[in-house]
């Protein structure tokens, strides 16, 4: 299998994308912002359609749209933590823009160019060029590094925002930065699994990790590992069964992992996972 260049490129781009999706997804689960990941998947498609209608590289629309809209959602929410009302309003607006850009795209471009829209919707991890795979790996690796650097204060702000703000942490800045990282991850992951299936790669491994461990740090590592395993196993299945799309295989494996975790564990109450306020009080006493 590894003798084929398209498999090697898929693993080169897909592995860091999956790890970034697992880390970002776990933070989304802790912050109760999974709906934001769903909204950003539609933002990715709308941005790509806008770029295609304008005749420019779809990646310009993917990145610009995802990052700008994610930052906008953070700016509208309290402590840069967009709630369901904000996300729902953005969701409806983006769907309307998507319909507009789809109409413009079909009127101004030939039918053959519609392949670009299909690639954004369903992913094209087996069709990445060396340049695309390298860029995807670099951007995803950068997201992983930044997220790991802010992991401790981000987890604190996610689980006890009031106490974190009282202790002087820049909660709003952390929230805006995190949502921008979510936007970058959504734009990159769209190339691997497509806009329609993006939420599965963000939510399923993270949800499984959240059920399997009470530690937020182990949860981050486990979520990243499960996301990477989902991608690897999905690629193997898609190679073994040529009629099976790789995007569907990847999301299918991720969903199966979550189903097994849900069936074999009992959900722990949130207070058991971590008490940042108690930890902060203990640090002050010492």
Describe it.
There is one protein chain. The chain is mostly helical and 286 residues long. The chain has a single domain (5-281), classed as ABC transporter involved in vitamin B12 uptake, BtuC (Orthogonal Bundle), CATH 1.10.3470. It is 80% helix and 0% strand. The chain has 14 helices and no strands. The chain has helices at residues 5-30, 34-54, 58-76, 84-108, 115-122, 130-149, 151-159, 161-166, 171-193, 198-212, 216-240, 246-264, 270-273, 276-285. α2 packs parallel to α4 and α3 (58-76) packs antiparallel against α9. 50% of the residues are buried. The model is unreliable at 269-286 (pLDDT under 50).
Q: How many domains, as an integer?
A: 1
Give the low-pLDDT segments.
Answer: 269-286
Please count the beta strands (DSSP E, at least 2 residues each): 0
Going by CATH, the homologous superfamily would be ABC transporter involved in vitamin B12 uptake, BtuC
Provide the succession of SSEs: HHHHHHHHHHHHHH
What Rg, in angstroms, do the CA atoms define? 19 Å
CATH class: Mainly Alpha
Helix share of residues? over 70%
Termini, distance in Å?
Answer: 56 Å
Q: Structural class of the secondary structure composition?
A: mainly alpha
How many helices does DSSP assign? 14
């Amino acid at each position: 299998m590894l003798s084929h260049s398209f498999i090697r490129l898929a693993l080169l781009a897909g592995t860091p994308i999956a790890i970034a999706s697992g880390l970002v997804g776990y933070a989304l689960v802790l912050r109760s912002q999974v709906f934001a990941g769903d909204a950003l998947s539609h933002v990715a498609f709308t941005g790509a359609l806008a770029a295609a209608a304008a005749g420019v590289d779809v990646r310009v629309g993917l990145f610009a749209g995802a990052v700008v809209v994610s930052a906008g959602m953070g700016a509208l929410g309290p402590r840069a933590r967009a709630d369901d009302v904000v996300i729902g309003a953005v969701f409806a607006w983006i769907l309307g823009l998507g319909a507009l850009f789809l109409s413009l795209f079909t009127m101004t471009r030939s039918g053959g160019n519609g392949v670009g829209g299909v690639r954004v919707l369903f992913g094209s991890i087996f069709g990445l060029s060396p340049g695309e795979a390298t860029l995807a790996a670099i951007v995803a690796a950068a997201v992983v590094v930044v997220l790991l650097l802010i992991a401790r204060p981000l987890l604190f702000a996610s689980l006890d925002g009031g106490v974190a703000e009282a202790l002087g942490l820049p909660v709003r800045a952390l929230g805006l930065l995190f949502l921008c990282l979510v936007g970058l991850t959504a734009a990159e992951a769209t190339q691997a699994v497509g806009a329609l299936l993006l939420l599965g790669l963000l939510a399923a491994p993270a949800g499984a990790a959240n059920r399997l461990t009470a530690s937020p740090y182990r949860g981050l590592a486990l979520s990243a590992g499960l996301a990477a395993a989902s991608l690897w196993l999905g690629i193997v299945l898609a190679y073994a069964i040529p009629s099976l799309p790789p995007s569907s295989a990847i999301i299918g494996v991720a969903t199966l992992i979550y189903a097994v975790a849900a069936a074999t564990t009992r959900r722990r109450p949130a207070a058991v996972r971590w008490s940042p306020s108690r930890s902060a009080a203990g640090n002050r006493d010492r």
